[in-house]
Amino acid sequence: MRDFSARLATAEEIDNWDKHVLxxxxxxxxxxxxSFAEVKSHHGWNPVYLAVTGPDYVTYTLAIEKRVRxxxxxxxxxxxxxxxxxxxxxxxxxxxxxxxxxxRLRVFAIKVEPDIVDSEEVRALFTGAGFIKTFNLQPNDSxxxxxxxxxxxxxxxxxxxxxRNAVRRAIREGADVRRVEPTEENMRTMYRLxxxxxxRSAARLRSYEYYHRFWSNFVAAGQGRFYFAFExxxxxxxxxxIAYGNKGTYKDGGSKPKRSQYGDSHLVQWTAINELKDECGxxxxxxxxxxxxxxxxxxxxxxxxxxxxxxxxxxxxxxxxGCYDFVVDPVRYRIWxxxxxxxxxxxxxxxxQQPFY
Length: 357
Prior knowledge:
Residues 162-289 form the BioF2-like acetyltransferase domain. Helix 3 packs antiparallel against helix 9. Strands 1-2-3-4-5-15-6 form a seven-stranded mixed beta sheet, sandwiched between helices. It folds into two domains: 5-138 and 322-352, 3-Layer(aba) Sandwich (Aminopeptidase); 142-318, Aminopeptidase. It is globular and about 65 Å long. Helix 4 (88-102) links the parallel strand 4 (72-77) and strand 5. It has twelve helices and 15 strands. The chain has helices at residues 11-15, 17-22, 34-40, 88-102, 120-128, 152-158, 161-172, 184-194, 208-220, 264-280, 304-310, 330-352; strands at 5-8, 46-53, 58-68, 72-77, 107-112, 132-133, 142-143, 145-147, 176-180, 224-231, 234-244, 247-255, 284-286, 318-319, 324-327. By secondary structure, the protein is α+β, with helices and mostly antiparallel strands.
């Protein structure tokens, strides 16, 4: 029988965290990175760096820990664990539970969110192993993924006709799209552009301080960059993109309404994709969030407009399994699940005007 064992990462492993995460079976995830862990450490979460060893490989897993008064701690394996097969997720979690109990840690539940494609078989596997399906947290639990391995000419041909025509027209009409420096002015411009997104209310937008730290961390790590489109010298479209290993991610975006240049937002993405491909060697690009595949044409879905834009690059939507909880302490988890989580989220929002997760 396959078995895994868990331990805390060593100081050397933490110092080289990204190198280890990128060597995971699935190639790592940007939300398991050192840069992201540092961001969350300033917003109510404690990073816990874990190494879980199985018969064939070691997976390095970031758990962000939320301490809840009177209940103990919740571990959230944000976009993790990164495993070689779905069957390994319960084995990794069982190893973590043993580690928690052996070290008398007051963790009452482990929330997992692996990048495993959703299916009836995977759902049955997880529920059969004792996992409880809960609400999804990350926007790219359903997302458009683009294979960027073909050459640029073939890559353009692979886009939908709508996306391809928008890129070609923007190029033909001389749309001004550029990578810009990560200055304070450009970051504040980016934040203002994000406030215009049609499916995001101002209440859901995190603070500027949060984004500033996030962007600065990934820029400093050599992984993040900004792209703007300009009209009459004024930025009208913005994107922050990340190259983490061989994966590109369209992390943040925004634009001014009622622009005159057709295809400028498509050209921003096209420029970013090709530069990340040529300069960073990405082989895939995550547009980071669409409606689920079965609701892509549902105009009532809050992400309908963004879904149309993103699927003009990648024609299909990938649905991941999303979030599942594994109960470590049934009594404390029951309190958390019935009232504790709701109260904790409300208190955190009142104090910080920011999302709990």
